[in-house]
Amino acid sequence: MANNKHLTTSWGAPVGDNQNSMTAGSRGPTLIQDVHLLEKLAHFNRERVPERVVHAKGAGAHGYFEVTNDVSNYTKADLFNGLGKQTPLFIRFSTVAGENGSADTVRDPRGFAVKFYTEEGNYDIVGNNTPVFFIRDAIKFPDFIHTQKRDPQTHLKNPTAVWDFWSLSPESLHQVSILMSDRGIPATFRHMHGFGSHTFKWVNKAGEGFWVKYHFKTEQGVKNLSPDLAAKLAGENPDYHTEDLFNAIEKGEHPSWRLCVQIMPLEDANTYRFDPFDVTKVWSQKDYPLIEVGRMVLNKNPENYFAEVEQATFSPGTLVPGVEVSPDKMLQGRLFAYADAHRYRVGANHQALPINAPKNGVHNYQRDGQMRFDSNGGRSVYYEPNSFDGPQESPENKQTPYPVEGNADAVGYDHHDHYTQAGDLYRLLTKDERTRLVHNVVEAMKPVALEKIKLRQIQHFYKADPEYGTRVAEGLGLSVPQEV
């Protein structure tokens, strides 16, 4: 009889590592032979029918992106080249954990997904309103989101599960601190920044590469809601953010963001003081200052919510020449998971829907599938290579290589400092902002059923900053554990 304490795959085999995905060397890329990772992500994407498993509640708008600075030294991507060049786009804002009918004003990260309809195909930047995330390996994503969803017995949100997972995953501390701060509840979708969060790779026409991070800076200014007002709005107008975005655009008050990037030379990744591909950390803007790229403006509301907002599909793997991926373990998993979720939720032909279809046309050998509503390739050749002048690859658009080394193994990031940046964030806050942060944490942790979970999390806060941990402990009527 198998030991029921042992974690197993869906086919009953024991799992040797459920914390780290298998990579080629310590930085990856992630290996497709990690069948446990693929099974977790594929099963997770099929757990909700038919709404999105995460980011179910959202609002969208059309607009354009205009280049305001020459960055051709860094990337050959068409949409980022040529001063004044405009590219049409569609954006979807969302909450993460709630269902389709949930309130807009809950404390939750906000999804920030942008689809650029470029002359070289579509390009998606799929991020959040925070520059970091709770975890840094995709193998932990299904477990994390399970804690944010409903308890399978009570069908209620479960604070014990939330804080149990966070306290056992100290890499989450930075994002938890942001979430529990004033920025955890934006005033509107218009009054928040957006981030690509992950590290990506830009490549210029000479084939030179650079690591890059995206920052969308709101031109409306950052504004947030107090918990009391947010709770009031959740009861009186649960669609407050959706309504605000629609009405602002209808009135001609077109929201806008300034897109900036941080650029890191490739070789710096080997010597920087922490792993730059770790999505739980930010790069210092003193080390890599923001460089302006352009301006995003939203100026048109959808004509039909379902056809445009609900059927819009985004993936960080929707790339164009000049933009490539990095060994970020969380990003590597998302490259599979997002597109797979859309194939399940919307269908194998989701990219052919009008809201997702590229403006420059599609030329490939994909045929058939459910709900194929176009000509299905007509009578054209349907395989490659062929002798009938069908579309062929363009070698100049191959992704540029980066070296990998080491053993095929399930390994974590080398850098285990989960506390410095969370502590720096706490110390950057004003006295009043710290007080509100501590209050929000305390109120969120009070319902946790086990005292040992509270004490474990208090240790993380204390390691980030002694005052932070002490004040949370006092608010919960507990003492900071002696071991810290």
Automatic annotation (TrEMBL):
Any single Gene Ontology cellular-component annotation: cytoplasm
Domain Catalase core: 8-392
Record-annotated active site: 55, 128
Catalytic function, reaction form: 2 H2O2 = O2 + 2 H2O
Alphabetical list of InterPro entries matching this protein: Catalase (IPR018028), Catalase_3 (IPR040333), Catalase_AS (IPR024708), Catalase_clade1/3 (IPR024711), Catalase_core (IPR011614), Catalase_haem_BS (IPR002226), Catalase_immune_responsive (IPR010582), Catalase_sf (IPR020835)
Signal peptide: none
Enzyme class label: oxidoreductase
UniProt-listed Pfam families: Catalase (PF00199), Catalase-rel (PF06628)
Keywords of this entry: Heme, Hydrogen peroxide, Iron, Metal-binding, Oxidoreductase, Peroxidase
Record-listed heme binding positions: 338
Single GO molecular function: metal ion binding
A biological process term (GO) from this entry: response to hydrogen peroxide
Region Disordered: start-end pairs: 1-27, 366-401
Gene3D superfamilies given in the database record: Catalase core domain
Cofactor(s) annotated in UniProt: heme
SUPFAM superfamilies: Heme-dependent catalase-like
PROSITE patterns, A to Z: CATALASE_1, CATALASE_2, CATALASE_3
The protein's Enzyme Commission number: 1.11.1.6
Biased composition (Polar residues): 1-24
Family from the record: Belongs to the catalase family.
Protein name as it appears in the record: Catalase
Organism: Fictibacillus macauensis ZFHKF-1
Lineage: Bacteria, Bacillati, Bacillota, Bacilli, Bacillales
